[in-house]
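tokens incoming
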């Protein structure tokens, strides 16, 4: 896949600088809001904390969680709660995912990946489709991930693909092997399905 670039051994600071540069370019290219979707889990939050040290017009940033666990925002498992605590003090808007939301085009779709090849909350047993008509879905992972055993709400493949660029942060040898298989078309996991539909640049920080 010639549109996929892998950047190895990227530190949180390297990734935050890449994000800062990309947001700076987008903010200076036009007026109005800049809209991105960001992952949950654990990896992104230290990166976001570094990113927020940058001197950007955060009031123009609209942040969509790529997915969340169906828990109150003050629950330790809430992605949205963590994103709100980080971005809102800087002046950015954090959207609450509901199936009623009109999902916009994203200037950047930033994703993580599980060792099972899931992205957002699109787990392998959900068989996510590129032709999915819905942009946001609620689902019950099966099996429930032990680290976050909750029902989910998630953007779908078409929603994530409606973006100018895709960025992954995928760390660990086991996950790298899954990514390499997906890039090589050797598995049909959710990450592979997303990559198969991506025409935009995809950067994978490992
Ligand atoms: O709600 C979630 O858990 C995430 O959105 C999920 O898709 C995450 O990105 C991966 O599980 C990787 O998580 P880590 O990068 O923290 O391992």
């Amino acid at each position: 896949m010639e549109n996929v670039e892998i950047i190895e051994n990227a530190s949180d600071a390297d990734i935050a600088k890449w994000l800062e540069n990309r947001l700076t370019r987008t903010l200076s290219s036009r007026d109005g809001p800049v809209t991105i979707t960001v992952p949950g889990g654990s990896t992104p939050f230290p990166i976001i904390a570094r990113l927020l040290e940058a001197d950007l017009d955060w009031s123009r940033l609209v942040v969509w969680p790529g997915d969340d666990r169906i828990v109150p925002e003050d629950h330790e498992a809430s992605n949205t709660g963590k994103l709100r605590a980080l971005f809102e003090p800087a002046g950015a808007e954090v959207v609450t995912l509901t199936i009623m939301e009109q999902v916009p085009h994203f200037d950047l779709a930033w994703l993580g990946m599980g060792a099972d090849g899931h992205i957002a909350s699109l787990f392998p047993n959900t068989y996510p489709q590129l032709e999915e008509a819905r942009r946001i879905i609620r689902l019950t992972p099966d099996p429930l991930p032990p680290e976050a055993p909750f029902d989910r709400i998630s953007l779908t493949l078409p929603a994530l693909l409606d973006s100018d660029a895709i960025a992954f942060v995928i760390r660990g040898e086991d996950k790298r092997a899954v990514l390499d298989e997906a890039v090589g078309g050797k598995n049909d996991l959710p990450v592979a399905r997303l990559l198969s539909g991506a025409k935009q640049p995809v950067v994978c920080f490992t």
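note: The chain has one domain: 4-205.
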